[in-house]
Amino acid sequence: QVEPVESGGGLVQAGGSLRLSCAASGRPFSEYTVGWFRQAPGKDREVVALIEGAGANIYYPDFVKGRFAISRDNAKETVFLQLDSLTPEDTAVYYCGATQKFWNLTVRRGRGAMDYWGKGTLVTVSS
Questions:
Q1: Average pLDDT of 1-20?
Q2: What is the pLDDT of residues 101-119, one digit of tens each?
Q3: What is the dihedral of CA 76, 118, 41, 60, to 10 degrees?
């Protein structure tokens, strides 16, 4: 079992950058695929990025378009999400999720595959 805790959200101007962190207590952290998701007001929670336990496999949906980058440091039990070229449309609560499900299943099911969730961190992008 892991308990994700997100941090790093805040207010940024359009075109700016933020780096989010997801610290997950519980072991063994390296056995968990971790995902970043976001939920804007009135919208469903959507996947932003996924990274497999060892970091060998990474998935981004098309709308990310090279603007975001996920990485992990298993020694520090932390997953990062670098957000660049932010637009007001990126405004949302960003959540970290974790699962031990197989990679292909996780990519296919997205948020439905996550077993553990953090409470989220708010990212607000002003125009």
A1: 96
A2: 999 999 999 998 999 999 9
A3: 50
Tokens read off for 7: 């941090």
Q: What is the mean pLDDT of residues 77-100?
A: 97
Residue 9 — pLDDT band, cuts 50, 70, 90? very high
Q: Residue 121: how many CA atoms within 13 Å on its side-chain side?
A: 19
**Whether pLDDT at 69 is above 90:** yes
Give me the residues paired with residue 27 across strands: none
**What is the DSSP secondary-structure string of 54-88?**
TS--EE--GGGTTSEEEEEEGGGTEEEEEE-S--G
What number of helices (H) and strands (E) belong to the chain? 1, 11
DSSP state for residue 97 in the 8-state scheme: E
Q: Quick one: which of 8, 28, 9, 6 has its CA closest to 77?
A: 28
